[in-house]
Amino acid sequence: MGAARNTRQKQMVYDALVRLDHPTATQVYACVHEEHPTVSRGTVFRVLSGFAESGQVRRVNLFGSDARYDHTLAPHAHGRCRVCGWVQDVFLPDFAAIAAGAASDGFCIEGCEVEFYGVCAACSEKQMRESANEA
Ligand SMILES: [Zn+2]
Ligand SMILES: [Zn+2]
Known about the structure:
Layout: H1 3-20, H2 25-35, H3 41-54, E1 58-60, E2 68-70, E3 77-81, E4 87-90, H4 95-103, E5 115-118, H5 121-134
Parallel strand pairs: 3-5
Antiparallel strand pairs: 1-2, 3-4
Helix pairs in contact: 1-2, 1-3, 2-3
This protein binds zinc ion (2 copies).
């Protein structure tokens, strides 16, 4: 594989990842493949693993979900909608202090996932509309 082609494929995968917002590898592949049918699933998965290993993107393991890829590297938590599955970023002001607390008794922290679950704004609005119609 040529270096130029390699760079182009990496860029495509990265762009799809940013556009999709916390996608799984399968979702990234579907998106890239739609525009560039010659790019294989293996290539997309390999590029994503490479990004995660080099720290260019963060691999997020949420409970009961395939790994997702996140281009936001600043420490943050996630909120996941149990209705539509959408994952949103949650920035907690005291995140660093909480991590420092966990490390205080000599525990060496290598990473963390904080996940809130519930219903996203769009889904709760929809639910509200539907229950209003029923009434
Ligand atoms: Zn939702
Ligand atoms: Zn995120």
